[in-house]
């Protein structure tokens, strides 16, 4: 046998040995990386999602775009609209509300409520606390009517706001989340026989908007116990349905909201939020199988989120981004202005990926006069392999990195300066074109 043949056989044997022993190991490594990117939490729910609250970056998702009945998680939109009406001074906290026939009907319906009676009077603040702490349906509908005049008009406002938020898989027909058939003669005119529907993603969007705009809501949602009609002859103890709050059965460190829900069609649902070490997470589970399991499944997501993610400093306030130091200025005394980070950029980064995220400047041309601190661009966070992360909505991705602002003022240039600049630009253009022509003739 020739030496060449022996060498070829030896090479073939070594190649086969490599394929047999090392390829399976490499494949296992790749699978492991894929699993790390999409954690397997084995949640026993119909759908779920977890996001970092500030940026809207998705940390976990499962069937997040399919719409299901949200039950009382609907009330998050009612809370938002009540707080918005307070902010716009359309209603006040101490405003008196007299309970009507609809409120009294729900007070006797056997669902969650504070047993409101017809002609009973309470303040907006009292009814709001009954909604946020005890998920009181009777209090909720009275607030809806106070804000919009009727539940039908309030539901229109709910759907309009949902559309503005980008909640594409949501339809509201009641302010409470109760099935329409349970409302009998009080069913809203807009129901058309259908019930509320919302996806886990949309619930997370709503929760993010609520907490971003009205973080003071948490001061109420974190209350574990409160007495309605305290000091009266008919006091009622309200125990918060969120049993993940400190001191309750399924307590979890850092939980301070947000909204539970349950109907036969919806199963057991929960939109939760918790904060630890500067990281705030928002979680949603829909269609859990029992009262307690929705909290157990939520704990799995929170455990994963808090053990794997932290808010990583990406850019200091006032710092510049290499390659994006200057923004163009039109009609100014200067043609450019230094672009700096308007605030410190913190971003949720998974353990082991601290150096994988970089800021990228997205600059725009501004017209003088330019004020110091004026927005001149945005900051995009680029992840591993130059790719962006997944967010709830495009607007969340756009805002995740914050903005670039002008480091100094740029005054508007006078007409003489602009005329000379235009003239010399014109001359430069002519000679530039002429030079290109001559160069072309002799190339």
Automatic annotation (TrEMBL):
Hydrolase recorded as keyword: yes
Active-site residues, as the UniProt record annotates them: 72, 75, 135
An MF annotation (GO) of this entry: serine-type D-Ala-D-Ala carboxypeptidase activity
Binding sites annotated in the UniProt record for substrate: 259
Catalytic activity: Preferential cleavage: (Ac)2-L-Lys-D-Ala-|-D-Ala. Also transpeptidation of peptidyl-alanyl moieties that are N-acyl substituents of D-alanine
Pathway recorded for this protein: Cell wall biogenesis; peptidoglycan biosynthesis
Keywords per UniProt: Carboxypeptidase, Cell shape, Cell wall biogenesis/degradation, Hydrolase, Peptidoglycan synthesis, Protease, Signal
Gene Ontology biological-process annotations: cell wall organization; peptidoglycan biosynthetic process; proteolysis; regulation of cell shape
Record function comment: Removes C-terminal D-alanyl residues from sugar-peptide cell wall precursors.
Family to which the UniProt record says this protein belongs: Belongs to the peptidase S11 family.
EC number: 3.4.16.4
Protein name from the UniProt record: serine-type D-Ala-D-Ala carboxypeptidase
Entry-linked Pfam families: PBP5_C (PF07943), Peptidase_S11 (PF00768)
Taxonomic source organism: Aneurinibacillus danicus
Annotated transmembrane regions: none
Peptidase S11 D-Ala-D-Ala carboxypeptidase A C-terminal domain residues: 309-412
């Amino acid at each position: 046998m020739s030496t060449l043949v022996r060498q070829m056989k030896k090479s073939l044997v070594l190649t086969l040995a490599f394929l047999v022993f090392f390829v399976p190991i490499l494949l296992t490594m790749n699978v492991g990386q894929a699993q790390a990117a999409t954690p397997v939490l084995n949640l026993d729910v119909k759908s779920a999602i977890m996001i970092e609250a500030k940026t809207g970056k998705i940390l976990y998702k499962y069937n997040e775009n399919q719409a299901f009945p949200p039950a009382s998680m609907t009330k998050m939109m009612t809370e938002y609209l009540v707080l918005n009406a307070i902010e716009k001074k359309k209603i006040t906290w101490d405003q008196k509300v007299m309970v009507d026939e609809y409120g009294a009907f729900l007070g006797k319906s056997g669902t969650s409520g504070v047993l409101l009676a017809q002609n009973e009077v309470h303040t907006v603040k009292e009814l709001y606390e009954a909604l946020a702490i005890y998920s009181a349906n009777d209090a909720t509908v009275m607030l809806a009517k106070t804000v919009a005049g009727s539940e039908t008009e309030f539901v229109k406002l709910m759907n309009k706001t949902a559309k503005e938020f980008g909640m594409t898989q949501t339809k509201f027909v009641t302010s409470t989340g109760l099935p329409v058939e349970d409302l009998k003669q009080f069913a809203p005119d807009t129901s058309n026989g259908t019930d509320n529907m919302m996806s886990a993603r949309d619930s997370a969007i709503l929760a993010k908007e609520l907490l971003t705009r009205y973080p003071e809501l948490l001061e109420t949602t974190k209350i574990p116990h409160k007495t309605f009609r305290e000091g009266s002859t008919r006091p009622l103890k309200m125990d918060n349905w969120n049993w993940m709050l400190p001191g309750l059965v399924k307590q979890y460190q850092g939980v301070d909201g947000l909204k539970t829900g349950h109907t036969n069609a919806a199963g057991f649902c929960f939109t939760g939020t918790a904060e630890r070490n500067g990281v705030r997470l928002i979680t949603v589970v829909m269609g859990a199988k029992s009262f307690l399991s929705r909290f157990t499944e939520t704990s799995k997501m929170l455990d994963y989120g808090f053990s794997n993610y932290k808010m990583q400093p990406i850019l200091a306030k006032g710092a510049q981004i290499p390659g994006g130091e200057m923004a163009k200025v039109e009609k100014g005394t200067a043609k450019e202005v230094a672009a700096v980070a308007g605030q410190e950029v913190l971003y949720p980064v998974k353990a082991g990926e601290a150096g994988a995220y970089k800021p990228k400047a997205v600059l725009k041309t501004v017209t003088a006069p330019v004020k110091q601190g004026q927005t001149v661009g945005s900051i995009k966070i680029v992840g591993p392999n130059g790719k962006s992360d997944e967010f709830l909505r495009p607007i969340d991705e756009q805002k995740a990195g914050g903005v670039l602002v002008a480091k100094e003022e740029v005054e508007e240039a006078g007409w003489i300066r602009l005329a000379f600049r235009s003239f010399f630009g014109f001359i430069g253009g002519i000679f530039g074109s002429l030079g290109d022509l001559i160069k072309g003739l002799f190339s």
